[in-house]
Each structure stands twice: as C-alpha cells, then as structure tokens.
Amino acid sequence: MVRRIALVTGANRGMGLETARALAEQGMTVLLSARDATSGRAAAEPLQAAGLDVRFRLLDVANEASIRHLADEVSDEFGRLDVLVNNAGQMIGNRTLGQENAGKTLLASCDSLLGSFTVNTLGPFLLCQAFIPLMMMHGYGRIVNVASGMGSLTDMHGAFGTGWPGYRISKTALNAVTRVFAAELEAYRNIKINSVCPGWVNTAMGGGNAPRSVAQGIETTVWLATLPEDGPSGQFYRDREAIAW
After folding, report:
1. What does the pLDDT look like over 69-116, one tens digit per residue?
2. Burial level of 193, CB count in 10 A (0-12/13-18/19+)?
3. Assigned architecture for domain 5-242
4. What are the sequence ranges of the domains in the chain?
5. Measured between alpha carbons, how far is 215 from 232 in angstroms, rounded to an integer?
6. Which of 99, 114, 170, 171 has the fewest CB atoms inside 10 Å of its own CB, making it the most exposed?
C-alpha cells in the first residue's frame, strides 16, 4: 500500500499542528511546514518522539519563491504529494487604531486587506498550482482549504458578526479558489478539493472565549483530507455538512 505524503501549512501550532498529528496517526508521512524554522522544528519534535513520521519543512506562504522551492524539494524527495491542507492564515487589523477599532470595515487600511489576501488567498492558490501537477501524475489528491464562516456571503451579518473585511473577503476569495480548481479538475475524479469552516476554535487566532476545542476544529478537515474516491469535491463544509457559500 502506498504511504501517502501530506503537506500541512502553518502547522507549528493550533489547528495546523493537530491536523499534522491526526494525519500522521493515520499512517501518512506529514510535512509540517512553518515560516519560522525554530518553532516549526520544535513543533515536529514531540510528534517524531511519539513515533510519527512528521518532518519539518520551511515554507512562507506569502513568498512565491518559497512555495516553488518546497514544491521542487517535495518532487525530488518523494515524487508525489497526496494531501495538501492549506491551513496557514492570518487575521490582520489596522494596528494603529487600537483594539476596539482594529477590525472595523470603514477604517480598514489597504495594507491590512493586501496582507490578508497574500496569505489567505494567494498562498493557497500558488500552492495548488505548484502541487496539483504532482497529484495528476499519480491520479490521486486531496486538497483542503481552511476557510471560515466569516467568508460566507450568506452570513456576513450572522453568527460570525461583522467587521474584519480583509479576513472575510480573503476567505470568500479562498472559496472561489476552491471552486475554480474543482471545475478544472472534474476530469480527474480522484483529485478532490474542498473548503472547510472549522468554526470558532480556541486557538491563538480564535481567542480563549471560543467554544470549540482544536480537536473539534480539525475533525472535518481530516475527514476531507482522507475522502474515498466517491467523495465530494468543490464544496464548503462545516461539521461534515455542506454549507452555503
């Protein structure tokens, strides 16, 4: 049986780290990536000590050269990539306005929007471009784009509140990335790409008041990363249920 190779971005902490652990526990070789080598290696070491095949890889999703370098490295070392989890993301406010105004749409700066797009949308787009050809070579691939209900067009003033336009719009655009790649991959029926909303999770980004544990947050991500051949593609999920874009 082929040992699957998985890449998880932004995996030095929080949901990325737990996703890496969960996939490794299913027998995959997991490339745990982070933009900081020290924190990335520190995150990988306990998993390696537990006997899991987890290997740190340096990756800055905001840097196209870094993405291309890693793609070449993975191709040379493994000749394949089976699972890509685009987990890395950031929520940028206008730091000059103070916490109470940092996420307000009327006060948002272009820098905060561009920074959000670079990490949350363009990074996953470029990673898909870089790794889908490897998936095509072997006729297998699972791509999970970690989006958010905050990017759902039907819930811009609902359970996830208002404000934070850079994060919201970039996650809406990430859902578009999922859809356009899914459309182009229709002929490759065993390459699946889906978006996931993990919910409001207790992480550094989600904050201590978030009601969901990290384990709850990654459950649907891991499910999508291990879909069977007849599984869905081009959809948006929360708690294994399709939700509105």
Report:
1. 999 999 999 999 999 999 999 988 766 666 656 678 888 888 889 999
2. buried
3. 3-Layer(aba) Sandwich (3.40)
4. 5-242
5. 23
6. 99
